[in-house]
Design a protein that fits this description.
heterodimer, A: mainly alpha, 0% strand, rod-shaped, B: mainly alpha, two-stranded antiparallel ribbon
Chain lengths: 25, 210
Amino acid sequence: KPESMNAFALISRSQGFNLGNLFEK
Amino acid sequence: MGCASSKQFKRAPHHEDASILAKETTFSVNEVEALYVLFEKISYSIFKDGLIHKEEFQLALFKNSNRKNLFADRIFDLFDLKRNGVIEFGEFVRSLHIFHPDTPMEDKIAFAFRLYDLRGTGSIEREELKEMVLAILNESDLLLSDDAVEQIVDQTFQQADLNGDGRIDVDEWKAFASKNPALLKNMTLPYLKDITMAFPSFVLYSGSGD
């Protein structure tokens, strides 16, 4: 439900922030 | 002289002394050396020059050197402390230090603020927040009406913009992030705790023996 969403919570899920991928072999 | 060949075959720049980087960050000398193994892998993936270019960063993150992503761009730009278009080893270590599990939450909050302050104005404006929401929707192939997006942005501002001036300043962000620590989950990389286990071959490079 959009009305219960927090924009920053949404944004923080971006794959662009998933720096864990840098450590994948 | 040609650009392409100099980019391809330039010698690797001498990387900063591991002991200096260890003093400035949460990492030990051994961990800095282990990070060099990771850095080397990424920085030689395309251009072979010992510097991380944006395409190499995208390749490491997405397995695709051409994948555009607003947030990966922001991370790259913040890691590029000298703002010269590439990430050097010292910049890599100092920036990853923010993502270490032991780094104080205040440092993570401050870094996240700079990430979200797209235009570097010292506050997160409504338009910036909307731009980021549209970017994540686009990235996730989610369809939401403009009204729904406006509603999300409005509601977030109601919660975070305490003085109601239409922008989220750094103090408002600190208060909001402290109340919502889940927002900072992406600012901690558990991998960094075990970096010497993940990249044990650093001993071949190090010789530091500690």
